[in-house]
Amino acid sequence: MTVAKYIRLSSADEDVKRGERAESNSVVNQRMLLDHYIESHREFSSCTILEFLDDGRSGTNFDRPGLHAMLEAARRQEIDCIIVKDFSRFARNYLESGHYLEQVFPALSIRFISVNDCYDSFDFPYGTAGNVNNGLLCLINEMYSRDLSQKSKTAKRLYAQRGQCITAYPVYGYLKSPEDKRAWIPDPEAAPVVKRMFGMYLEGKGPGEIARLLNEDGIPTPAQHKRSLGSKRQLWNSERTENFWRATTIGKILRDERYTGKLVALKTALSELGNINSAKAIEKDDWIIVPGAFEAIISQEIFDQVQARIEAVRPTRKLGPMKRRLFSRKLKCGHCGAALLRHEIAQGVYYDCDGRAWNGTDDCKKIRLFETDLTQTVLASIRFQAQLAKKTEQRLDRQAKNIQAAQNRAMSARQRIQKRIAQLETRKAEAYLSYDLGEVSQSDYKKRCKKIDAAIMEQKRRLDALEQDGGSVLPEVDVASYGQINSLKPLSNLRALDRDMVEELIHSIQVYSENRIEIAWNFNEDYMKLLLEEDTAMRDDK
After folding, report:
1. Are 208 and 96 within one domain?
2. Is the pTM of this model over 0.85?
3. Which residue, 330, 80, 50, 309, is CA-closest to 203?
């Protein structure tokens, strides 16, 4: 039997502290509670235990990676039992949670346990979620979540209207006031850099030139500066790519009116409760803007002059909606860590190193990779991974068959020994009966028993040796690894590449001079171990 532990921490939970830990105490406590429950019930002693985790995810919707993976495993009938701390960890949406508890899980013969709610689906008839109280709990959880969300929105709006900052981190150039965490004060180190940027732009320098000059002077980037102040916040890209100024960073700073002392808040809103991916931009007329909320670094006059110049040099062509590029945010320079820039020319689309102009090496300057060549290389790599997945599955199947055969032979040997012991015990009983009836003498009876006991002891030694050996054990492969294998196998003849496939399979692509690339795959650790084993096996075969 396979048991799945599901753990969820919401960003609204009290013990969440931004940027401090990968896992909160709440996650640890949930894990301890579920582990204790499993250990205290003997029926789970020999079960395979899987854990699915969503840290910082709302329970109001089912768009959660951990929950999605668990439900997919459940649909493949790879899970027999699901255990949660309480109903609210699974979901606060009454209708969706009821659908799973009353229809999906019973149909799949999956047992569902909510520890703190004292609920076990085995205690109730097929197709029921328990009693009225359990349904009411789910409904209350949903209502609580919506109420909490509304109160949070109201509180943020009130803070913003009072000119109090509601963002977790101040914009570059400001620090949180030691007296009031909702107030910003100019950063004595970064504020002069902001003033310098605005001054250089009014002198006629563009964002690219400003970035180059800041890099040449060794001015710490916003990320570097925050780390020097003790921040552990990490963005999507590597630390190396945050170590130099970029034109895009300069452009954002030049357009940010908060440097005039204005508080600008609530520029986005969630269209779906609890779904952070549903954030949509709000019209500027509906923003909360409070002038004079904190000390200005840039005067309104200078800011307006900069905006006028930005508008004057802005391209006149109207840009259409942003397209999802095939390799967007995936390509990095293998030499300096900078992102690769995309260029469109008559010969096609090519990429080069963004850091080559100011902090790149000679090798950075040699990178010029056309998208068609990159696409073909990635396609070939994916097809190779598909072949590896097939070979890995075949190796696991062979191992399983060989081990199963060995286990069957061991079982047959065990049965033969047990049968022989039973026969010897019967002969011993017959010898006693013959002695009791006076058919044999006492000395003959003792000799016969001694011989039989010796034979029994020998058989028991053979049985003990067999038990101690234990035979071979079937390889334990987690559900996610099998899922990875099954998703890769159909790609052995892949001929076209799309963005969704790149997003699913590839974490990043490191590009080196001479157009050499290294692909970091989105494979889980256990599957990577299987690939290493397969690579070792292939080398041994050669």
Report:
1. no
2. no
3. 309
| Whether residue 185 sits in one domain with residue 147 | no
Count other C-beta atoms under 10 Å from residue 141's C-beta: 22
* Most confidently predicted of 3-17, 201-215, 317-331, 514-528: 201-215
Q: What are the C-alpha distances in Å from 225 to residues 76, 231, 294?
A: 49, 9, 21
Range of the structural domain that residue 288 is part of: 174-224+236-313
Provide, for the chain, the percentages of residues in helix, strand and coil under a 3-state DSSP scheme, each rounded to the nearest 5: 55, 15, 35
Q: Can you list the positions of beta strands (E) in 81-163? A: 81-84, 111-114, 119-120
- Domain match, 199 and 302 both: yes
- Count how many Cα atoms sit within 13 Å of the Cα of residue 193 in the half-sphere of its side chain: 24
Q: Is residue 167 part of a domain?
A: no
* Distance (Å, whole) CA 27 – CA 21: 11
Domain identity same for 219 and 291: yes
- In this structure, which amino acid lies at residue 515? N
Query: What local confidence, expressed as pLDDT, does residue 15 receive?
Result: 41
Amino acid at 332: K
Q: pLDDT tens for residues 144-189?
A: 445 445 555 565 666 656 667 767 678 899 888 888 777 888 999 9
* Token code pair at residue 218: 């060794």
CA angle 289, 290, 296 (to 5 degrees): 110
Whether 271 and 305 map to the same domain: the answer is: yes
- Rounded to an integer, what distance in angstroms lies between the CA atom of residue 111 and that of residue 59? 21
- The CA dihedral of 41, 44, 45, 46, to the nearest 10 degrees, is 170
Q: Smallest Cα–Cα separation from 134: which of 87, 92, 95?
A: 87
Same domain assignment for residues 480 and 424? yes
Q: Please tell me the number of Cα atoms within 13 Å of 59 on its side-chain side.
A: 30
Q: Specify the pairing of strand 369-370 against strand 348-353.
A: antiparallel
CA distance linking residue 9 with residue 89, whole number of Å? 8
